[in-house]
Amino acid sequence: MSEHAIEFLRGWIGEKVHCQSHARIEKQAETLARECAAKAAEVGIPLEDIQEEVGDIQELIASRLEEAAEADEQQASGGATK
Questions:
Q1: End-to-end CA distance of the chain
Q2: How many Å apart are CA 53 and CA 13, to the nearest integer?
Q3: What's the rounded Cα separation, in Å, for the pair 57 and 8?
Q4: Residue 74 CB neighbour total at 10 angstroms
Q5: Cα gap 50→70, rounded to integer Å
Q6: Across all residues in the chain, what is the average pLDDT?
Q7: What integer is the mean pLDDT of 39-59?
Q8: Other Cβ atoms within 10 Å of 19 Cβ, number
Q9: What is the pTM of this model?
Q10: DSSP letters of 29-53?
Q11: For residue range 55-82, what is the model confidence (pLDDT) as tens digits?
Q12: Going by C-beta distance under 8 Å and a sequence separation of 6 or more, which residues neighbour residue 21?
């Protein structure tokens, strides 16, 4: 994948992926994946270029949403120790 495509995806996920409740993660990931694909096309990055590098973008976004939700839960509980 081109460096431009990688930078686009990192920036886009950073802007759009925020903490969600676990119940909403899959629906939100689906919506964000569609938005990401549309925006990538607008800037001339084929979805295939992104998928070649990271696989299914919906799964990637869902993973990031889950990470954000877990981090938020840990902060809310006072930073649970391992």
A1: 36
A2: 15
A3: 13
A4: 12
A5: 26
A6: 83
A7: 93
A8: 15
A9: 0.67
A10: HHHHHHHHHHHHHHTT--HHHHHHH
A11: 999 999 999 888 887 877 677 777 554 4
A12: 69
